[in-house]
Amino acid sequence: MESATPWRIRGKRVYREFSQAELDVQYDARATAPDGQKYRDFISENSARVRAERDCRQNVRYGPSEAEVVNIFPADRPGSPVVYFIHGGYWRSSSQNDVDLYADVFVPAGCAYVTVNYALAPGVSIDEIVRQCRSALAWTYNNAESFNGDPDRVHVIGRSAGGHLTGMMLADGWRKDFNLPDNLIKGATALSGLFDLEPVRLSSVNDWAKLDKEAAWRNSPVHHMPRVGFPLILGWGENETGEFKRQSDLYRVAWQSRGWPCQTMEFPGKHHFASMPDLMYPDEPCTKAVLAQIGI
């Protein structure tokens, strides 16, 4: 007879069907991808190469602190779409310098490309990280013409923690603070993102995220949907944990329930980090979808 292992035996249920140990595994992206470092090295090394080969305005300040800088790859022609990219690193690592490699696709395709840096947890709160990314997006909108960008054609992309922060750029209720239009963003892509931070708060990730219940709700994109919809792409790796996949599906349901277009894609055979190089290659399905969303 097949034996079941109910949660009562595995340990006290902390969230949904998960015990504490199980929930920690679900949100430990690095533990589920033992070769993840080679992908992190790849994007860092290629980003350095792209900065050396292309016109790049590095560490342009958008705010008062040392961390508040962007890298800018100007478009070749005035009035070009702007791609605003938010790096991942689970809010505690990486920088804008690690995602400059994608300029090799977006600039030749006719875009201006901007990568944003922000201060890292636990040195600052998730609230402050969100505020910085919003401030940088406002700066990008207000200064787009200085790097041949069209402020009325801004597209936001992020992966992992950057996917979460992309969701917080889409969220309602902050644009008026920066005197920005509700329809500032014309399209967005969030890859392997987090959209409900309550289970994150309950997991070991909170060792550095430092979320209380109110902050988790305040910084959960699924609870703060935008007023104005637009095309959205959500993607994840086939070999990511069930919770990472569920997070994207949760946001998909919330988006589509409002009648807004949402394209989803699963990257076959890939874990959380293995899809990181994809946007560097024009023939990858995700890259094609993003360029089609932009209208290129």
How would you characterize the overall build of this protein?
The protein has 296 residues and is an alpha/beta fold. It has one domain: 3-Layer(aba) Sandwich (Rossmann fold), CATH 3.40.50. The protein is built from 11 helices and 10 strands. The strands form 2 sheets. It has an 8-stranded mixed sheet with strand order 3-4-6-5-7-8-9-10, with helices on both faces. Strands 1-2 form a two-stranded antiparallel ribbon. Strand 7, helix 6 and strand 8 form a beta-alpha-beta unit. The protein is globular. It starts with 6 loop residues before the first helix and ends with a helix. The N terminus is likely disordered.
List the helices and strands and how they pair.
Elements (H helix, E strand, L loop, with lengths): L6 H4 L2 E3 L2 E2 H7 L9 H18 L3 E5 L7 E5 L6 E7 L16 H4 L5 E5 L9 H18 L5 E11 L1 H10 L14 E7 L6 H5 L3 H4 L3 H6 L13 E6 L4 H15 L5 E6 L17 H10 L2
Parallel strand pairs: 5-6, 5-7, 7-8, 8-9, 9-10
Antiparallel strand pairs: 1-2, 3-4, 4-6
